[in-house]
Each structure stands twice: as structure tokens, then as C-alpha cells.
Amino acid sequence: MSNIAKPRTDNPLNVKSVFKALDILEAFEDRPRHLSLGDLVKATGLDKSAVQRFTHTLVQRGYLEQDPNTRRFALGRQILAVSFDFLRGQELIARAAPILLDLRNTLQERVDLSLRHGDMLLYVMRLQHKRETYSAGLIGRRLPLYFSAGGRAMLSKLSDEEAHAIVTRSDRLKRTPKTQTDVEAIMQAVRRARDRGYAIQAEEGKLDEVAAAAAITDSDGTPVAAVHVAASLNEWSISRFEERVASLIVSAAQEISR
């Protein structure tokens, strides 16, 4: 689940019913596509009658869809329509697009763009060059900053204290046998990324995959995004991949930052 702290609901400006509706939408994260009314009651902690009212409203507005046979709920198409408007309005993504296309064509490997999203990163562009798994091409996936090459590249642009705090409060789960979960070992990887200008990670998220990334910063030097390149270890050694990719992703990140 998300490492983004939710605002306190006791602020007088907050509308509690909006919080509850958003809790229902966010209940679908990392769960099966279709959820029953009971599933949503359990996931949100709301009572059944409240969930019935909210789901009915969200179905009417297109943010949820309900299967007429099973009566189970799924996220609706209106979610995607709103996502389009978000992406369309992002100057950084528009600026990055041609640069990432050139990078993909040069390297002939998958190139991704992620935005920082609290203690997470959010993939907003995924340019495949070869046939890969369906999920590898989907935008909207979130990962903890400590875990991915792009996240570690962004952490490297923060102070040691800031980066350490983010790593420490993250739920450091093993996704493969090679996922690094020790705080100090992760911080060593962050410091290496700071020294090199890029981060590299192998098989921590997916076996047989190596990834490298460089951070994109705003005018104050704050990390806001990252450029990633991922490839198969069946086709590259880690050293050859790093030698080929490192300078190109750093240059791409710097160009987008400017």
C-alpha cells in the first residue's frame, strides 16, 4: 500500500465524505480487480450502508463499474479519463517525451519516466522496445523510492538525513530473493548513486532484469522525477549495461531538468 501520509480528517476544511469516497477508490490498490461490497467494507472500515451509498454514487459518476451478474465492483473508465487530463497538463512529461523516445531508439531497450509521489515513485511513461509482460508497459504503477533505481537516484539528490528517514519509514518488503531491505545497505546504494550521478540495480524487482536511472531536478535541485532504462540480464552483463547506459541517462536527465 501507499507510503503517502493521508491528511488528518479533523481539519475543519476537510470534507469527511470525500475522504470516505476516496478510501473506496484506493481500496483497489494491490487487490484483485473486482471487489465485493463485503471486500470494500473490510478494506475501508466503513459500515455496509455507507459503502452501499458511496459505491452507488461512484458507479453513477463512472469512477466505479459494477458487474450485473456478480454485483462486484471494479474501477471505472472515468479514472482513465481523469488520468489523461493529468498527463496532458504536465509540462515535464511533454518536455521529456522526445528525449525519452530518442533514448529508447538509441538503446533499443525499455525507457521509463517516473515522478516522485511522496515516498514513492509513479510511472507516467513507459516506452517498450521489445515484447515484454503486460504490466511492464502500464503507467500508474507505484514503487517505494528505496526500492528502484529511479527512486535511489532521486534519494541521492536529498541529504543523507532526508534519504535515511524515507528509507527507514518505508515498508521494506522482499520482492525477489535479491531485494535489498537493510537500511544501511540501501543508503550505501544511495551514496554510490550520489557519487556517480546515477543508480543501478539488478534483480531486486524482477529476476534477470537490470535497471539504471538518473534523477531529474527542479530549479532548486530538488528531485522531482527520474529517467529509467531496463534490460534483460540474458542479453547484457551488468558491467556492459552500465558502461553503455550510464552517460546517456545522465545526459537525458540533465536535458529534461534544464
Question: Which properties best describe this structure?
Answer:
Arc Repressor Mutant, subunit A, Beta-Lactamase, 19% strand, 6-stranded antiparallel beta sheet, single chain, globular, 258 residues, two-stranded antiparallel sheet, 9 helices, alpha+beta, disordered N terminus
Main sheet overview? 6 strands, antiparallel
Structural class: alpha+beta
Name of the CATH class of the largest domain: Alpha Beta
Percent strand: 15-25%
Kindly describe this structure.
By secondary structure, the protein is α+β, with helices and mostly antiparallel strands. 44% of the residues lie in helices and 19% in strands. It has nine helices and eight strands. A hairpin with a 2-residue loop joins strand 3 and strand 4 (120-127). The longest helix is centred in the last third of the chain and has 20 residues, at 238-257.
What would you say about this model in short?
The chain has 258 residues and is an alpha+beta fold. The protein is 44% helix and 19% strand.
Topology (elements, then pairings):
Blueprint (H helix, E strand, L loop, with lengths): L15 H11 L10 H8 L3 H14 L2 E3 L6 E3 L1 H12 L2 H17 L2 E8 L2 E8 L14 E3 L4 H7 L4 H10 L13 H14 L2 E4 L6 E9 L5 E10 L5 H20 L1
Antiparallel strand pairs: 1-2, 3-4, 3-8, 4-5, 6-7, 7-8
Helix pairs in contact: 5-9, 7-8
